[in-house]
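fyi for ur records
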Amino acid sequence: MLFNYSKLLICFGIFFLSIIMSLPQTFINKFTSNAIVETPRGCVNKYAFDKNSGLFKLKKVLPAGSSFPMNFGFIPHTVGEDGDPLDVLILTDEACYPGCIVECNCIGVMAAQQSEGSKLVRNDRLMAVSTESLRFAKIKTSANLGMQMINDLVHFFENYNRLRGKKFIFSGFKNKNAAIALIKKSMIDDRDE
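which gave:
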């Protein structure tokens, strides 16, 4: 009898979805939140969490020479102005796998808009540092990132959106208080869906 991988994947998806949906949106302290990694740092594949299956779907492949500059993910139980969970860029010592839950300290917000059809939609990216990071432990605010890292991030998102036929307009960094306010404003109770 052959092993039925589709049943295993469905069971895994349901199990993982139940974990994601039951993950509490908690603040360990004023600036600490949980985040779910979708795309690892250094990866050329863009993954996205598929809420219906509970699995991660390959959404896009970046061109040669491009890769994600940080772990890219989302804050569970939130919805941003673009209709998706809030995006978060997470500094960690190594790349994390898709689905990894990372407890992180919010350090700021990369305020931005991007085109959706003919209109511009707010699509901020939260900035965070893993609470387990040794290398980045001293970064407490987005001002600590340095101009080179900021320029690299802006350049990455401008190119990423340009390749998708969209515009990306960076409007500056906001502090960690703005990051926490954005999370609180965007929280939803989706556990009953």
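Residues 1-10 have pLDDT under 50 and may be disordered. thats all i got for now
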